[in-house]
Amino acid sequence: MDAVTVPATVPLTGMRGAIARNMEQGWRVPRVAQSVEVDVTALQALRAAAPEDERVSLTAYVLRAVALCLREHPRLNARMREKDIELLGDVNLGLAVSLDDGLMVPVLRNADRKSAAELGREARTLAEGARAGTLSAGSYQRGTFTVTNLGNTAIDSFTPIINSPQVAILGVTRVAARPVARGNEVAIAPMMGLHLVFDHRAVDGFPAALFLTDLKRRLEAAKEL
């Protein structure tokens, strides 16, 4: 088999250059990471109970739950400015989309006012548009919080870089069967990882932990989703 020829260098120009600058800016943020596992048994049952033509992905439910929790925890729905923290009224979720040559983050606007089905459809449309290069510049603007999903990989934990000037980002990892304690017995349950990284200048550890705890409870209860 012939060897595959690859370029000796990748220029930091265009999209790759913009990503490099944004990641460097985000890396300078004094950040803290917190993680939790979520039992998605009830969420999978909710999804399975929906008619097949109306069934949405687990990611759509996560987006819906995140948006609702951000209404209750506005300190994470914010932007860092030079001399203050701007708490934002709208919940606009950035959705990280992997491309062959980079990463783009189109925005789901007013996500807290949309159903999981609506968010799922819009997320698919935005992802397809980002990969095809057909989205307008406005589709990537005014995000207030970002969600990045590695659920289709074998990764169980990671610490995503904050999409500055936003103050927090949530990483989602795969659903895997794991042993869990239920009362005095051990059961096998589908567990999903949630990994929150936040700017400690804007949010302290305990309020961030409350947000992540509420998100876990909302997903495990599978209510209002």
The structure class reads alpha+beta
> Quick check: average pLDDT?
92
Outline type: globular
Question: Which CATH architecture is right?
Answer: 2-Layer Sandwich
* Count of helix runs: 5
Describe this structure in words.
This protein has helices spanning 14-27, 41-49, 58-72, 116-132, 205-221, and strands at residues 31-39, 78-80, 85-87, 93-95, 97-99, 102-104, 107-108, 145-149, 168-182, 185-199. The protein has 225 residues and is of the alpha+beta class. The protein has a single domain, classed as Chloramphenicol acetyltransferase-like domain (Chloramphenicol Acetyltransferase, 2-Layer Sandwich). It has a 6-stranded mixed beta sheet with strand order 1-10-9-8-4-7. Strands 2-3 form a two-stranded antiparallel sheet. It has a two-stranded antiparallel sheet with strand order 5-6. Strand 2 (78-80) and strand 3 (85-87) form a beta hairpin. The protein is globular. It holds the Pfam family 2-oxoacid_dh. Keywords: Acyltransferase, Transferase. This is 2-oxo acid dehydrogenase subunit E2. InterPro entries: 2-oxoacid_DH_actylTfrase (IPR001078), 2-oxoacid_DH_E2_comp (IPR050743), CAT-like_dom_sf (IPR023213).
